[in-house]
């Protein structure tokens, strides 16, 4: 988990992990007031750098298909859409 600060305020965060096979970006968020300033780009780059230092060679992530702005953000950061089937199971109803 990495955070971006503006003074004493948290303005962004990224959660990433590596399980020995591939890395995952689980969540990235930037306050609306700080979007477009490179905060997300810098957080993502640092997470990728740290994953690579652990021996990670590929990073995966998932985005809700309707979230075009986030898809665009990741594409500008070098990510591409792969044909995959995403499956889930609700454990509580």
TrEMBL record:
The N-acetyltransferase domain, residue ranges: 1-93
Alphabetical UniProt keywords: Acyltransferase, Transferase
Pfam family, one: Acetyltransf_1
Presence of the UniProt keyword Secreted in the record: no
Name by which UniProt lists this protein: N-acetyltransferase domain-containing protein
Organism whose genome encodes this protein: Devosia yakushimensis
